[in-house]
Design a protein that fits this description.
Blueprint: H1 5-39, E1 134-136, H2 154-160, E2 169-174, H3 180-188, E3 197-205, H4 209-222, E4 225-231, H5 237-251, E5 257-262, H6 269-278, E6 286-288, E7 324-327, H7 329-339, H8 348-359, E8 365-366, E9 371-372, H9 374-381, E10 394-395, H10 401-416
Parallel strand pairs: 2-3, 2-5, 3-4, 6-8, 9-10
Antiparallel strand pairs: 1-4, 5-7, 6-7
Helix pairs in contact: 3-10, 5-7, 5-8, 7-8
């Protein structure tokens, strides 16, 4: 009987230790759960919540506008990409921790287009075009376009020194070759020089030598045109969109944001740049007006007619209308890489921001009040409303050049307080 007492005491002690450990574990778990529920998801996407008439002039930025998905802290950051696992186990495709020396980083640990992940012949391919090339191109992504594509990169780049800057926003404008009046309107208004931005007009090839010479002359004057060797046409819009992402990938990966826009839209760049500059760097962002349940046009009379062979579903996936889209660099790169591997579909906004965005698991952050609707735009033009009555980034498309110039005057007039 007495020989069993030590064993009995040991069992009692072990029971007490297990009980205390279990109670401590429950407290720690409940504390973690309550903390997680109060702070929200690391990648929670929320639209800007502003009063209906918050004036742009009130942007003192004492508290940055948090309209973009939040970033994790640097010590939690992992470079993630489609097809790459973030597990720390060694060996095997998708099973090894990403080697940061392979992936150049921005200061905020945002993915900057690792070219090592692309095929060696990628630069000369554009989806199913195996002989792609830039007819007009240059390598200068600095805020000030000091050189044309004909000039040397080597010694000249050393002379520029600190003048070369990484743009906050790379502005990629889709434009038709003959739209020089629209391009000049943008250059004179919302696209005029700003050290935080780089403006590029994207066009396709033309069948006229006279028109080509005029485009080259325009580029020598402004140094802001990128031209691909596919014919500029409606059915080639996806080539132009992917070419834009290609130019970003190879020639301007240091941009903090990519703005894709059409040449008939007004962009409130003073406000847009101020807001993006005042917020911390983001990732996994696809920011646009979200279109949902859009039916596929099956009538032959429609310009947007699509056959069942081209697209077999009745409705398109949720997507962005192509006139104004903001990408973060990681999304722009992943969309580009995936689009290079998928079959061609000619409606670029549906293909890139709908089908391809789904494949890389990116969801749309809606513009909400950051999009100025037509009635609000007309009120500003009619002078029945002030340009600062509502904070906005974009307008709807199909604006005439005169409307863009008047909107720019209204915005700058209000900002300068004149």
């Amino acid at each position: 009987m007495f020989e069993r007492r030590p064993l009995f005491g040991a069992l009692i002690g072990l029971t007490l230790i297990v009980t205390v450990w279990h109670m401590s574990f429950q407290e720690a778990t409940s504390g973690t759960s309550s903390s997680s529920s109060s702070s929200g998801s690391m990648y929670q996407e929320s639209a800007i919540v502003l009063p209906p008439y918050m004036p742009a002039s009130s942007l003192a930025y004492s508290t940055p506008l948090q309209f973009l998905p939040a970033l994790p802290q640097p010590n939690e950051d992992r470079i993630m990409s489609v097809g790459i696992d973030e597990t720390e186990t060694g060996g095997g495709a998708g099973g090894s921790m990403v080697n940061q020396s392979v992936f150049p980083l921005l200061l905020s640990s945002i993915l900057v287009n690792p070219l090592e992940m692309l095929p060696k012949d990628d630069y000369n391919n554009l989806i199913d075009l195996k002989d792609f090339k830039f007819i007009i191109n240059f390598n200068n992504c600095s805020a000030e376009s000091g050189r044309s594509h004909h000039e040397s990169v080597g010694t000249d780049s050393l002379k520029m020194g600190d003048e070369r800057r990484s743009p906050l926003v790379l502005v990629l404008v889709h434009s038709a070759p003959t739209n020089w009046y629209k391009r000049n309107t943008i250059r004179d208004t919302w696209g005029q020089y700003d050290p935080r931005a780089k403006l590029i007009f994207l066009i396709g090839a033309v069948n006229s030598s006279v028109l080509q010479r005029r485009l080259e002359q325009e580029n020598r004057l402004y140094d802001d045109i990128v031209q691909g060797n596919f014919i500029d046409a409606y059915r080639n819009m996806t080539y132009k969109h992917v070419m834009a992402l290609k130019w970003f990938t190879y020639h301007c990966p240091e941009a903090k944001y990519v703005l894709k826009v059409d040449d008939d839209v007004f962009v409130n760049t003073p406000v847009l740049y101020d807001v993006l500059e005042s917020t911390s760097q983001r990732r996994r962002l696809l920011f646009c007006q979200e279109i949902s349940k859009a039916p596929v046009k099956r009538t032959h009379r429609s310009k947007w007619y699509v056959s069942i062979q081209e697209y077999r579903y009745k409705y398109y996936p949720n997507h962005c209308p192509g006139y104004s889209i903001i990408y973060t660099p990681d999304v722009a790169f992943e969309l580009y890489r995936e689009a290079q591997q998928q079959p061609y579909f000619w409606i670029d906004d549906v293909h890139l921001t709908g089908t391809i965005a789904r494949r890389i698991n990116v969801t749309i952050t809606p513009t909400g009040r950051m999009l100025l609707n037509r009635s609000q735009k007309d009120a500003i033009l009619d002078r029945t409303a002030n340009a600062t009555d509502q904070l906005f980034f974009f307008t709807t498309p199909d604006l005439r050049e005169g409307e863009i110039r008047r909107l720019w005057k209204a915005v700058t007039y209000s900002k300068n307080g004149r």
